[in-house]
Amino acid sequence: MAVASATAGLHLVLVALGIGRGDEVVTPSMTFASTVNQIALAGAFPVFVDSDYGTLLASPEGIAERITPRTRAVIPVHFAGAPADLDPIREAADRAGAAVIEDAAHAVGTAYRGKAVSVPGDIAIFSFHPIKNITTGEGGMVTCHDEVLAGKLRLLRFHGIERDAWRRYGKGGTPHYDILEPGYKYNLTDIQAAIGVVQMRKVGEMNARRASFAARYLAGLAGVPGIDLPVSPPYPHEHSWHLFIVKVTGVDRDAFLGRLAEYNVGAGIHFPPCHLLRYVRERYGTKEGDLPACERAGSRIVSLPLFPGMSEADVDYVCGAAREILAGAGR
User: Fold this and answer.
1) Distance from CA of residue 275 to its chain's centroid?
2) Are 84 and 103 in contact (CB under 8 A)?
3) Is the confidence at residue 10, as pLDDT, over 70?
4) What distances in angstroms separate CA 272 from CA 135, 202, 302, 309, one per listed residue?
5) Extents of the domains making up the chain
6) Would you call 287 a catalytic residue per the annotation?
7) Helix 6-16 and helix 33-41: axis angle, to 10°?
8) Which CATH number is 203-329 given?
9) Quick check: 273 and 29 in contact, CB under 8 A?
10) What number of other Cβ atoms are within 10 A of residue 181's Cβ?
């Protein structure tokens, strides 16, 4: 089901599953705040899981430990384009009768154990935001393996109308319609969909370029003191390399970002740990020290430029800038 954004998709899924007040949703803190926002807006309680410092992924064991009788859903995050370890996560969720909602916003083209993410039985939510591996300007997609749920999502996506525009105004159709329940205006526009169809034809080529640049970064920054490189998960997978995230240890992270700007290198932070956001701390009582590995990574992470329009020379330039900055910090 194509939707206006991944955020809209998560909202629809939570509504369709009836998740609300008194329910718990288990999710990593190392994710974009949109995930936690939607849990909070639904009236449910976010239960945060620590992440591995190297991969930035939540472990199945960590997720299983946080599941309680009040858990209605688990949201594993395929962070930066690497897949979470879905099989044991799903087993833990199944034992509790909780839904698995894969946060696949970074994972267009990501594969887990030889298959595209969106394990049968799971719900998965993809993003087509402008910076994602493919884009529709703005937009997203919800996938699932349940026709009843799919029908509910389609109703909620467009005002609760039971017949879409093609069946109302196409050949042989009639303009009459009924509304089965109140819904939202979360459809993807036809213009955005047309862009997405073309983008999907290019995803393999664009992801291959991303992987090539990621490999060049790994080689160009290997062994450089003061920087920790991303670690790949140990199980079979295909990384879509939505982001290339390093942890800066040899100098203050914000100082490093400032120096990169002097080299005309734009960099990002993906993401500040959600359990330390002000409204989350005030509303749910989370605090520093709750998730040590996530907090350790969160204070050091920097996303270096990674997009298909780069050149190998661009990657080499960024590597050179990072090496010079860190070498100067050690003097």
Assistant:
1) 16
2) no
3) yes
4) 24, 31, 11, 27
5) 2-193, 203-329
6) no
7) 30
8) 3.90.1150.10
9) yes
10) 10
Distance CA 81, CA 232 (A): 10
Q: Residue 234 burial by CB count (10 A; 0-12/13-18/19+): exposed, middle or buried?
A: exposed
What is the chain's length?
Answer: 331
Please say whether the beta carbons of 28 and 51 come within 8 A: yes
Q: In the numeric block, which tokens belong to residue 327?
A: 């070498």
Q: What is the CATH number of domain 2-193?
A: 3.40.640.10
- Give the whole-angstrom CA distance, residue 65 versus residue 291: 13
Closest CA to 211 of 76, 109, 105: 109
**Mean pLDDT lowest for which of 41-50, 104-113, 164-173, 225-234?**
164-173
| Residue appearing with tokens 């979360």 | 186
Closest CA to 7 of 173, 145, 138, 165: 138
Give the pair of three-digit tokens for residue 103. 């946060």
- The encoded tokens of residue 51 equal 């992440």
Q: Tell the residue number behind the tokens 């909202």, with chain if given.
A: 11
Mean pLDDT score across all residues of the chain: 95
User: Among 115, 132, 152, 171, which one carries the catalytic annotation?
Assistant: 132
Q: Which residues of 244-280 are buried (b: 16+ CB within 10 A; e: fewer)?
A: bbbbbebbebeebbebbeeeebebeebbebbbbbeeb
Please say if the pLDDT value at position 169 is more than 90.
Answer: no
